[in-house]
Amino acid sequence: MNLLIDAEKKQGDFLLRVNTGVSGERIGIFGQSGSGKSTLVHLISGLLQPDRGEIFLNDECLFSTTKGINLSPERRRIAIVFQQAMLFPHLSVKANLLYGYRRCRTENRHIKPETLIALLKLQPLMQRGVNNLSGGEKQRVALGRAVLANPRLLLMDEPLSALDDTLRFQIIPYLKSVSEEFAIPYLFISHSILEMQLMADRILVLKKGSIAETTTPDQLARNCMAHNPKGYLNLLHLADPVLHKGLYAYPWGHNTLLISDGEPSGTSLFELSSRDIILFKQHPEAISARNLLKCTVSELFRSDGRVGVVLLSNGEKFVAEIVRSAAEDLNITAGSTLFAAIKASSFRRLG
Ligand SMILES: Nc1ncnc2c1ncn2[C@@H]1O[C@H](COP(=O)(O)OP(=O)(O)OP(=O)(O)O)[C@@H](O)[C@H]1O
């Protein structure tokens, strides 16, 4: 997917001015509240008209003031999933799902309803009214309805913000799998760094109505480390554990991590805050933390007053965070050997 936007839109005192091109299948748009994310989504989808400029999707002009082009939202074939599911309350799940599909031109109907219904596990809900669904079920139906419109681009405007953490991490695999299975590129909008790490390959950072930078999820997490209450979030996809003295022993490359967080359930994705890792210059004796990893420092980075220490342990990479004076006192440089202590309770299960 190639998207080119050179457009301006004034809303009250707020001016969105964007001139950027982005290519890829999983693009994130990250910005604080009021930075203009939704305005940008509305311009791309055609729900709002720029005051001036042009928008191209895969070389097709969607909007141009100079050429006098303004394709309607239907003709753009861009679907949106919003923060609130916004289903038709008087229609069943089935009728909601098929709404976009029936309006889609026959030659564009590449995605079969039964395939999508199976993928999103919606079969048991089909005859239900949408008012009787949980928040997560509603969002799955909204996603299904958007995808069955057979869009060439999916816009997800904070689709997880209204859900609690448990539901959020249940929905993410669905968002990713529909995009992969049906080869639909997406723009994923959020102010959550964790969601950017989980959903995007490339990120446009919006600040006060303009694109401040184009970056990667890792770089974004590094830049925000000092200001994020959880620091840099290490994400660990771990294979099945075995029980070991009341804890779960998860293989992590050639390491083993002892984790106390609950029974495994299918996939195991954990977050580990950079602030929950304590570094030692020498092997410590008799410590209570259940994990002690011998590491090599691969690089250091700065994030305001904090230092991120990128560590390699048996080929696995993670980031620990220390204050600048600690980096100086311990004389930590690239190539140093360190020991990282992590409590078994510091890992938070995400899915
Ligand atoms: N119709 C409008 N009239 C006046 N100002 C508006 C209008 N719509 C949006 N704005 C202003 O434009 C700015 C950007 O709004 P927008 O909804 O795009 O931000 P956002 O980044 O999506 O925020 P959030 O994360 O809170 O949803 C805000 O300051 C908002 O108050």
From TrEMBL:
GO terms for cellular component: membrane. Residues 2-233 form the ABC transporter domain. Pfam families: ABC_tran, TOBE. Residues 286-351 form the Mop domain. One of its GO terms (molecular function) is ATP hydrolysis activity. Keywords: ATP-binding, Cell inner membrane, Cell membrane, Membrane, Molybdenum, Nucleotide-binding, Translocase, Transport. The keyword Transport applies. InterPro entries: AAA+_ATPase, ABC_transporter-like_ATP-bd, ABC_transporter-like_CS, Mo/tungstate-bd_C_term_dom, ModC_ABC_ATP-bd, Molybdenum_import_ModC, Mop_domain, P-loop_NTPase. This is Molybdate ABC transporter, ATPase subunit. It comes from Chlorobium phaeobacteroides (strain DSM 266 / SMG 266 / 2430). The lineage of its organism: Bacteria, Pseudomonadati, Chlorobiota, Chlorobiia, Chlorobiales.
